[in-house]
Amino acid sequence: MNDCLWCNQAIIYQPSWRHLFTFVERTTLCDDCQSELELLNGKRCVKCSRKSDMERCLDCQYWSEKLGKDPLTANISVYSYNERMREMIAKWKYRGDYELVYAFRPMFVKVFKNHFLTQLKNFIIVPIPLSEMRLHERGFNQADALARLLPYYQPSILKRLHSEKQAKKTRYERMQTKNPFKLVEPINKPVILVDDIYTTGTTLRHAARLLKNNGCPEVYGYTLVRG
Amino acid sequence: MKNHFSLPTRIIKQLAGKRLLKRELPVNHQTYQSLTKLKLLHPIQPIIKKGFHYECQRCHNTKRSLFGMYPCSRCNQTHRYCRKCITMGRVSDCEKLYEWHGPEPNWPTHQQPCTWKGKLTIEQERAAKRIVTAIQLKEKEILIHAVCGSGKTEMLFQGITYALQLGMRLCIATPRSDVVRELFPRLKRAFQTVSIQALYGESRDKSGSAQLIIATTHQLLRYIHAFDVVIVDEIDAFPYHKDISLPIVTKRALKPSGTRIYLTATPRDDQKQRMKYQHLPHIFIAKRYHNHPLPVPQMKLTISLQKNLAHKQFPKSFLRWYFTREHSERQVLVFVPTIQIAEALKQTFTTLHSEIRSTFVHSKDPNREEKVDLFRKKKIDVLFTTTILERGVTFPAIDVAVLNAGHHVFDEAALVQIAGRAGRSPDDPDGDVIFFHDGKTNAMVQAIQAIKAMNKRGGFK
């Protein structure tokens, strides 16, 4: 028995034969809290995971018009951004409650296996870095925390030079920002970029363009939340 | 060591009696360095190991599941941190907590701080005198058990006046931020010359440097040995009585020679036990300030209650009661167990009787203060509420109904408090209190017994 990471209520398991013969992973959220989170499924934009009836949503059409060739092959997100998710992200990222990342682990790993492990081979995982200052302030990088949950984790090969909080900007400002990243070493394998939230996709595309310009064949995005 | 480093008194007042994280210190890095060198700021270990468990030195949490680990990118180590008090800034092994070990600031003595000109009743006077004696004799703790609507705040004024005359520092702590918001303007009016601050989660001024502090009990996490007197209002309210660390923190905020004063209308079992064996000095105020007895609740058996509520309908008995009340001019406060039921019943009520103005409030309602205010101004006739309005609010003339009084959120204390909402004004000192239930619970029976017993002790038949 353990406690729910969000509401601290005890989680009581219904014992079954399965528990005796196989390894059943402990759930970290109680059923009530789990049901508050909304998994993304059904009809989605093939490019950015947003719920939409079109094959490509308007945002992604804008990106491919603007950039000519979109550096990001596709983005996969796990959850949609509802009220509960906003609260959880705030407590996790801004208050610094690192343990909350384990609340996302089961689905985050499962969706990763379904989408990537079956299709790609010989890839590397690159968490989106934070700037030195922000990292010092928070004590940990939330993208790195997510990447650690995945198999084949390794520290990031990207560096972030300066960073203003994206969340404070308007949509237009976000799409116009300069590329804040620097590459430490070039790679020639497919890359999966990991981040916490995909809102306009600017951050991921900056990183993707940099990687592609330096000889990377394909760049995917894997994010926890589609904002 | 001689203090050849002078800090403005404003800063000393902010630091004195606090236990803070580095980022909460009101000084810049340079001053911080010289203060630690002079040993005026004393670093303490934030999380210590005690036997088989760890203890957070800010919130005194010892529960294992409320400690977490994170890989720190500053020092490339894995640190333990406290998850319980994380909303007030993360306490982890990485950062020390700091206490002020410099000179105590001089709090001003006030000749005549109290600008309140009201008059106390005999009963209130008795309690006020007792509080003054407790502060005078530096008694450890005392409980004021006063029935709902007996004017507890006014009883405090003499004690506060006495303490301020001696230049003491005081704190009025309460578990609920609503109560802080209500007390703050009242005390500001009563003590106009004294520096008073209100501290709660969303309060703007967080410096906490005033002589008289009104705070939620959670805010006391940042204090240590700061106050000569701590008054805990509504000691039986959630979360104080469920949370083991809050009583520890309240005790810690007090100087070792200080006095704790508890106020409540419904003491919990542990306090009752301690009063019975005379481990806890107390005084009982049985009369409301307008000298009328407490309204005694009536129980109304309603077999179809659960079925009706599940279908978002009103039980017939409720509607019959509503439309045949003796004083139909009174507003009605309807308590329901959950947020969903409150919203659903309001919906049904409007479709049934659109001519009667009704609305709902609950803890997640962003407009909750506005709606309560409208109700107070008599612009709403029926208010559906969860237990958030069970205490600390006064409406002049209301009848009270509890739908599904057998639900576990309505424990004895809650029901006594709910009954205490009725008949609070001297112009209309009575009111109906009806518990609609589908089977008596111990809580309901005990609440009614407790109210009758209090009336008896107050000298009413």
Supply the key terms.
heterodimer; A: 227 residues; alpha/beta; four-stranded parallel sheet; two-stranded antiparallel sheet; 36% helix; 16% strand; globular; B: 461 residues; Rossmann fold; seven-stranded parallel sheet; six-stranded parallel sheet; 30% helix; Amidophosphoribosyltransferase (chain A); ComF/GntX_DNA_util-trans (chain A)
Strand residues, percent of chain B: 15-25%
- Span of the ends, CA to CA of chain B: 67 Å
Structural domain count of chain A = 2
Cα gyration radius of chain A (Å): 18 Å
Count of discrete alpha- or pi-helical segments spanning 4 or more residues of chain A: 9
Structural class of chain B: alpha/beta
What can you tell me about this protein's structure?
The complex is a heterodimer of chains A (227) and B (461). In chain A, strands 3-8-7-4 form a four-stranded parallel sheet. Chain A has two domains: 1-36, no CATH class; 42-226, no CATH class. Chain A has helices at 17-21, 31-36, 58-67, 83-94, 101-117, 132-138, 142-147, 171-176, 202-213; strands at 2-3, 10-11, 74-80, 124-127, 158-160, 181-183, 191-198, 219-226. In chain A, 36% of the residues lie in helices and 16% in strands. With 227 residues, chain A is of the alpha/beta class. Chain B is α/β, with parallel strands linked by helices. Chain B folds into three domains: 9-100, no CATH class; 122-285, P-loop containing nucleotide triphosphate hydrolases (Rossmann fold), CATH 3.40.50; 298-457, P-loop containing nucleotide triphosphate hydrolases (Rossmann fold), CATH 3.40.50. Chain B is 30% helix and 22% strand. Chain B is built from 13 helices and 20 strands. Chain B has helices at 9-15, 29-37, 122-136, 152-165, 177-190, 245-253, 269-276, 305-310, 316-323, 339-352, 368-376, 412-419, 442-457, and strands at 19-21, 41-44, 47-50, 53-56, 67-72, 77-82, 97-100, 141-146, 170-174, 196-199, 212-216, 227-232, 254-264, 282-285, 298-301, 331-335, 358-361, 382-385, 398-403, 433-437. Chain B has a seven-stranded parallel sheet. In chain B, α11 (368-376) links the parallel β17 (358-361) and β18 (382-385). In chain B, α3 (122-136) packs parallel to α4 (152-165) and α12 packs across α13 (442-457). At the A-B interface, β1 of A face β5 of B.
